[in-house]
Amino acid sequence: MAGKLAKQLRRAAKPRVRDEDVFLNIPYDARFENLLLAYIAGICAFGFTPGATLEIPFGQRRLDRILSLILQSRYSIHDLSRVQLDPNAPRTPRFNMPFELGLTVALERSEHHNHSWIVCETMRHRIKKSLSDLDGTDAYIHGGTVAGVFRELGNAFVGSRRQPSVTEMSQIYRLLRVHFQSVLKKAGAKDAFNARVFKELCVRASKAAGELTG
Predict the structure, then answer these.
(1) Which of 64, 109, 139, 203 is the most buried (most CB within 10 A)?
(2) Using alpha carbons only, what angle is made at residue 167 by residues 161 and 172, rounded to the nearest 5 degrees?
(3) Are 92 and 86 in contact (CB under 8 A)?
């Protein structure tokens, strides 16, 4: 298995790194919808472009595309706040988020040295139990709130050129909320975890950010 993964890492086309791209590794469930919109609003407010695995086109090998997304991104945000068992049968924990974090760390240590990644959580100190291998890495604790996401993005990107206020990020978030149902209807989707919906939300957030922050 390790040899197979190593071959996939080597085979993955190494795209040009885009300094404005942020790989967003989050859980895809209805309860996370508000935080997804908050991440999109906040990331775009800083002048960056979010990217996520839900954009992977049909027919494209998923793991290869995940690797390409990470390799082309200057930054990545890994939200590990969904470590509990999924209530739907069969009841299982979610491994996609820590798995993609592991891929990111491996790439950062091997061939993507300029990549910067952060870990976000809802509960303070829980990561010491859920992923003790990251002991010594400070997680950004958003507390499961929109305001918390904005606060922690501000802490994570404190050195970026554009420095939007929490008020500006909130304005973009509210705009996404206002247009959310029309975006869903246009895409024929039931939730935000849809490639067309995600792309449309990012476009709207980027446009609003440009108007607000210049």
Answers:
(1) 139
(2) 80
(3) yes
pLDDT exceeds cutoff 90 at 146: yes
Give the three-class secondary structure for 140: strand
- Fold entry, domain 2-213: Rossmann fold (3.40.50)
Q: How far apart are CA 104 and CA 41, in angstroms?
A: 23
From the list 109, 112, 108, 134, the residue with the least C-alpha distance to 121 is: 134
Give the Cα separation of 47 and 65 in Å (integer).
24
User: Would you call the peptide bond into 50 cis, given omega within 30 degrees of 0 as the criterion?
Assistant: no
Please list, in sequence order, all residues whose beta carbon lies within 8 angstroms of the beta carbon of residue 142, skipping any fewer than 6 positions away: 35, 81, 120, 121, 122, 148, 149, 151, 152
Give alpha helix (H) positions in 111-194.
127-130, 146-156, 166-187
* pLDDT at res. 111: 82
Quick one: pLDDT band at residue 10, thresholds 50, 70, 90? low
Of 42, 27, 186, nearest to 96 (Cα)? Answer: 27
Residue type for position 27: P
